[in-house]
Amino acid sequence: MNAEQQPLKITETALRDAHQSILATRMRTEDMLPIASKIDQVGYYSSEMWGGATFDSCLRFLNENPWDRVRKLRDKMPNTKFQMLLRGQNCVGYRHYADDVVERFVKHSVDVGIDIFRIFDALNDFRNIEVAMKTAQKYGGIVEGTISYTVSPVHNVELYIAMAKRLEEMGSDILCIKDMAGLLTPYVTRTLITEIKKVVKIPIHLHTHATTGLVGMNLQCAIDAGVDIVDTAISSLAMGTSQFATECVVASLKGEARDTGLDMNLLAEIADYFKEVRNHYSEFESDFKGVDVKILDSQIPGGMISNMENQLREQNALDKLDEVLQEVPRVRKEMGYPPLVTPTSQIVGSQATLNVLTGERYKIITKETRECVMGKYGKLPAPIDPDLLAKVSEGQEIIECRPADLLEPEWEKVVQECGDAISSEDDRLSYALFPKVAMSYFAQRDAAAANPVKAKPVALKNASPPAGSAPAKASAPAAAPVGGAYTVTVNGKPYSVEVVPAGSAPIKASAPAPVAAPAPAAAPAPAPAASGGAKATLVAPLPGSIFSVQCSVGDVVNEGDTLLVMEAMKMETNVTAHVSGTVGALLVKEGDKVQTGDELVVIN
User: 570 with 367: CB under 8 angstroms?
Assistant: First the structure.
């Protein structure tokens, strides 16, 4: 039977990409578990429920062990294949890791319950996915080799056909076309699926987004052309920057040759459930809820839009959004037309934001922009702008080999740094990928374990109290606290609270983390160096956190020397001395959060 006559298979994205795209990846595992058994009964081909930004968000924002999410959901969903998004040599991080880390990560993912690995490289440099593919296959995983779809003067149907053939030759069990920004159009979709079907025998899986409003037509063209599997999201988490609604696809094929066979009554229950749950996360929702055909020009993926809005809003610069959206394609062209998908979407988007808000293009260049241009993420699709290359390269040659070939094995170093206190495979792998974030999570987890608080479960019905009702109350600990770190829950959201004895300093509560590190704003002019032993203070050029301190009091520094590294928008930026002199005082330490203009280092 031809694919055009076979039932269409559906991958449900509610537990991963749907909430990543519209709720900034903030959905907690406890909000997934009550409905998991219902999802398991539907008959989906698979549930995409892990990978992408979920791993980072569990550690960074939700105070959860990401590995436990898979285990807990697997207990509730024994019959559904679990699917994850894996960034090839980046795993679920933002840099290339050594092969030994990639291999251990993939093996452990299989061990905890992942079945299907959608493996992609942001630049479509397939050298960067070989190790992950071979490891997944070795341990029994299903490999979904992936093309990151984009549009540029160097990307066309012929190129994508060649990529599809290459991925099949590399051993892919399934071929995925990943249209992360919703850039496909109906006729291109039909042509792409039809032509690839002629040259590969493996099933084709289409992933796309609703951002530009073309998604329904695109999916119908793909279905007519014989696509085997499509990604959809349950209606209460669909559309906008997410995927097309599951129920719409199921209803449209009812009684036809490609009828999915999925139970509409079960889907209605699941949709009602997530409609309630979504109320818990309204503060993280994007203002983008409709259609924006301009995305065909900016090519910004769905999940990136809500983050960019948040970053600009926090800098009182939301009026700059259109300017940033216009700058993104300029930066992308100058960087050699990389597809905009993690991590290149963050790299290009962060650089574009810096260019706009500092008032001078490439006044500040992130570490990741430099590394991407120099080939440390792989081969860029097109030549790099000569002026940008000259600024970034400083006479060095672009890397031509597979980037991971330059990396020394990392695992033994990870084990040594973790020591006996961090001994589980879960924790060591979390540390290997996100050292600082993981250590912060371990500290919070240990503090909560030492001072357990019995929190009242949050009812799912009436999650948002009606107007005029009494304010929601935080669940109280069973006994009066005597000091220390506690976790309390308000409206289903965990808050870390430091409790101190009466008469001491005031209690401090940490509010839920923002959607992303705020975007940079133009830095005020640094204090000029004064003669005669006067002091000059280096200030923060952008908001973020202090990633590392690379100087000490008493050090003699020259103008241009790197004194600190800041992290903002998950990117690293060197902060350099604006004058020559001697470091007189360090006003910040690693981990401190700073705003634009905050004083960092005094130089005498």
Answer: no
**Phi, psi at 575, each rounded to 5°:** -110, 115
366: tokens are 């992130």
Count of all residues that appear for the chain in the document? 604
Q: For the chain, list residues with pLDDT below 50.
A: 455-483, 486, 488-493, 495-532
403-430, pLDDT tens digit by residue?
999 999 999 999 999 999 999 999 999 9
Tokens of 58: 């569990």
> Tokens 């093309």 identify what position?
147
Paired strand residues for 556: 582
Own/partner pairs, 469-476, CB within 8 angstroms, 24+ separation: none
Q: Is 346 helix (H, G, I), strand (E, B) or coil?
A: helix
Quick one: pLDDT at residue 524?
40
Q: pTM value?
A: 0.80
Whether residue 477 is preceded by a cis peptide bond, meaning omega within 30 degrees of 0, is no
- A 10 A CB-CB count for 313 gives 16
Cα–Cα distance for residue pair 282/425, rounded to 1 Å: 35
The values of phi and psi at residue 536, to 5°, are: -125, 130
What residue ranges in 436-558 does DSSP mark as E strands? 484-490, 493-499, 508-510, 536-539, 544-549, 556-557
Identify the pLDDT of residue 188: 97
Cross-strand pairs, 437: none
* Residue 157, both tokens: 């149907």
Whether the CB-CB separation of 425 and 411 falls below 8 Å is answered with no
| Start-to-end Cα distance in the chain | 79
Torsion of CA 124, 130, 133, 139, to 10 degrees: -170
* φ/ψ of residue 388, rounded to 5: -65, -45
DSSP state, residue 420: T
Task: Return the number of other C-beta atoms located less than 10 Å from residue 511's C-beta.
Answer: 8
Spatial neighbors of 69 by CB under 8 A, at least 6 apart, are 29, 32, 49, 50, 54, 58
Residue 395 burial (C-beta neighbours within 10 Å; 0-12, 13-18, 19+)? exposed
Give the single-character DSSP code of 497.
E
CB 237 within 8 A of CB 209: no
Q: Pairing between strand 229-232 and 484-490?
A: unpaired
CA distances in angstroms from 150 to 156, 336, 341, listed in the order given: 9, 13, 9
